[in-house]
Amino acid sequence: MTKLCTAKRIIGAGLIALVLPVTVLAGDARFNEAGELIRPNVDDWVFVSVSAAAGADTSMMAAAGEGEKAEPAKEGDFHIIRMTRDAFAAYMETGEFPEGTMFSTSIFALSDEGSRMFGREVKAMEFGVKDSERFADGWAFYRFANDQQSAAAEPRERCFDCHAERGAVDHVFTQLYTVFRNNGRAGSE
């Protein structure tokens, strides 16, 4: 595992060098100078589960209602939950989430296409990041509007408290995630 640090990458040859600041963290998490999570690309992350919102404000993380924060999920929204490949493999092997684990929830607004509903627009993205050196509680949770590129961690009471109380394994809702339930890794329910 790589410890959180700010590194300088030196690129060049001979007497000419270019120094670029890079933030490094175990896993795929990257943070800007303000400490905000830079929105990860989740296209190659592992599918863990899906859910459909059943009522008003059913988002796993309620929106703050300020600035560029995304709207809360509403009835009919569709959620796809994914996690980084390395963290998935480690959890399936050991039953523990390693440092650097990242989860994402993509929240889609559904559109009616006749006989089927499709997720056409990503309304928001939510992320959980495990890093015991960076976060006092070990995890932090983030919410991005559909076009937002970086976000500060959500306040503890908005996300972490529910995860701590209801997450079956290490503050994660493993008991709700299809892949974990189907493979004996759901934890206690």
Q: Rounded to an integer, what's the Rg over CA atoms?
A: 18 Å
Q: What helical percentage do the residues reach?
A: 10-25%
The neighbouring-strand order within the major sheet is 4-5-6-7-8
Give the name of the CATH superfamily.
Answer: Cytochrome P460
Count the helices. How many?
3
Count the domains: 1
Give the CATH topology: Chalcone isomerase
Sequence of secondary-structure elements: EEEEEHEEEEHH
CATH second-level architecture: 3-Layer(bba) Sandwich
Level-1 CATH class name: Alpha Beta
Could you give the distance between the termini? 30 Å
Overall SS class: mainly beta
Would you summarize the structure shown here?
The chain is mainly beta.
Verbal overview:
- By secondary structure, the chain is mainly beta.
- The chain has one domain (39-182): Chalcone isomerase (3-Layer(bba) Sandwich), CATH 3.50.70.20.
- The chain is 12% helix and 35% strand.
- The protein is built from three helices and nine strands.
- The longest helix has 10 residues, at 85-94.
- The chain is globular.
- The two termini are 30 Å apart.
- Mean pLDDT is 74; it is low at 1-26 and 56-70.
Topology at a glance:
Elements: E1 5-13, E2 16-24, E3 37-38, E4 46-52, E5 78-83, H1 85-94, E6 102-112, E7 117-130, E8 139-145, E9 150-151, H2 160-166, H3 178-182
Antiparallel strand pairs: 1-2, 3-9, 4-5, 5-6, 6-7, 7-8
Main attributes?
single chain; 189 residues; mainly beta; Chalcone isomerase; 5-stranded antiparallel sheet; two-stranded antiparallel sheet; 3 helices
